[in-house]
Each structure stands twice: as C-alpha cells, then as structure tokens.
Specification:
This protein has ten helices and eleven strands. By secondary structure, it is of the alpha/beta class. The termini are far apart.
C-alpha cells in the first residue's frame, strides 16, 4: 500500500515558514504585494482567486484583484499590466488563466515585467529555466518538486515520466526533473504505448487533464506518483488523472486528489511573491 503524500500538510508547513519571512520583512517596513488580474466570470477562476486572496492574507502578503468583464479589449488589459509593472507596491503580477475567447494570453504574459512574473510564464523566465540559469519557476511544477523532496523521494539517477507537455505544467516539470539529474521522458497525446513508458518510471507525474488515464497496471511497483490532474465528474466529485483505487496498492508513494498538488500550487505562489519582494528590495 502506497504512502500518502499529503499536500495539505506540506503546504501548511510551508505557510508557517512564509509567515515568518513576511514578519521579517514587515520589521523592515516591507509588505510583499501580489496583484491578480481576473477577466470574465469563470466560476473555477473566481474560486481559485478567492483562495489565493485568503492564502495571501494568512501569511501577511498584501493582495488586490483587478476584475474586468469578459468583453474587455486587449488595450485595456495591457494598460493595466503596464501600470502594475510601474507600481512599487506590487512585487508580483498574476494573470488568471484561462482568459475569455478572443484575448491573447501570450501577449499579456509577455507584457508582465519578468521580475514580477511570479507564475514563471514570461518567455525570459521560461528560457532561463530551460537553460538552467535560474529564473522564476511555474508554481505547480515547483510544488511537484517540493512534494517529492519532502516525501524523501530520490530523484538523481532515477527514471522519470511526465504525462502532458503543456507549458504550464508538463514542460517545466520535465525541465526541473532533468535539472535534478533524473532521466526524463515527456509523454503526450501522440505517444505510442503510453503504458510501456510509465511502467519504467521510478517517478511518474500525470498532468494530462484526463480522468483515470493512468491505472495501477501502468505503474512500476514502488514508484512515486504525483497526480496533477483535477477533473470534475458528472456527479460533482473531483478525481485526478490517476485511478487512485488501482494505483495505491502498487505505488510506493502517491498524492491524492484533492489534497495533493492543489494546495502546493498556492503555497508556491506565496513563496514566489515573497522571493520577488526580497529580490526587488534587497
């Protein structure tokens, strides 16, 4: 039976440390600031932004959400980003995705000053990550790596398989694993015989966005399994990309859904904002 990797517990530990860092900055008259741009009325985005606001308040980060209707034009959003780039009270700027149809996320993400890009999506930061030159790291991949480390999973020299090649999760996660000296295979929708790859994995990261894609018979016995997927079923329940019931008896360690990677994404966003405040203000 697999050991459960409790993302809620790890995130709570991280927040305590972040709260102490915020207190240290406050003693110097510094309050880290996060600006969130929310366009449209997507329910999942609204819930996620509300959770971010609460998490920021819990550790001492000042946050403000700039809300725009779905029909907002690109020019208005670019002007808002420009204003936030110049506003010294904000150390981080986050553009909540997905955007309504007709808006170009790439143009807006590139508009954010790289030093305030706490989501790590700016091409400069992504390029630095790819070249091993540091830069800011996307929050979900950073959370996956933190969970592996906290669970005591050895990465160097191990076979790692990442399912999903999005620039939000799959690609940066593969780069981080490679930087940690794993041998990495990046699988996607055109991969032939997915199970042949996953059965070799000492570390398996599922980030395809397809409920129950990975079953127990596709997992190497004793492997560490990180399930990034979060899928809402017709009955309203949430499940991951990994079929937990068949995977748990085979894996050595596994994250649940919910309660695994999700809490870590927000915790790493808080960390990135505090990191940016410390970097920007010396």
């Amino acid at each position: 039976m697999a050991r459960l990797i409790d993302g809620k517990a790890v995130a709570a530990e991280l927040r305590e440390g972040l709260k102490a860092r915020c207190a240290g900055l406050a003693a110097r008259g510094i309050t880290p600031g996060l600006a969130v741009i929310l366009v449209g009325d997507d329910l999942a985005s609204r819930i996620y932004v509300r959770n971010k606001e609460r998490a920021c308040a819990s550790v001492g980060i000042h946050t403000r959400t700039f809300r725009f209707p779905a029909e907002t034009e690109m020019g208005a959003l670019k002007a808002q980003i420009d204003a936030l780039n110049a506003d010294d009270s904000f150390d981080g700027i986050l553009l909540q995705l997905p955007l309504p149809q007709g808006l170009c996320a790439d143009e807006l993400l590139e508009r954010i000053a790289p030093e305030k890009d706490v989501d790590g999506f700016h091409p400069l930061n992504f390029g630095k990550l790819a070249l091993g030159l540091g830069g800011k790291t996307p929050c979900t991949p950073a959370g996956c790596m933190e969970l592996l480390r906290r669970a005591g999973v050895e990465i160097a020299g191990k076979e790692a398989v990442v399912i999903g090649r999005s620039r939000l999760v799959g690609k940066p996660t593969a780069l981080l694993l490679q930087a940690a000296d794993a041998t990495v295979t990046l699988c996607h929708s055109h991969t032939r015989d997915l199970a042949a790859h996953t059965r070799r994995a000492d570390i398996l990261i599922a980030a395809a966005g397809k409920a129950g894609l990975v079953t127990g018979e596709m997992i190497k016995p004793g492997a560490a399994v990180i399930d990034v997927g979060i899928n809402r079923m017709p009955d309203g329940t949430l499940c991951g990309d990994v079929e937990f019931s068949s995977a748990e008896p085979v894996a050595g360690a596994i994250t649940p859904v919910p309660g695994g990677v999700g809490p870590m994404t927000i915790a790493m966003l808080l960390k990135a904002t505090i990191d940016a405040a410390e970097e920007r203000r010396g």
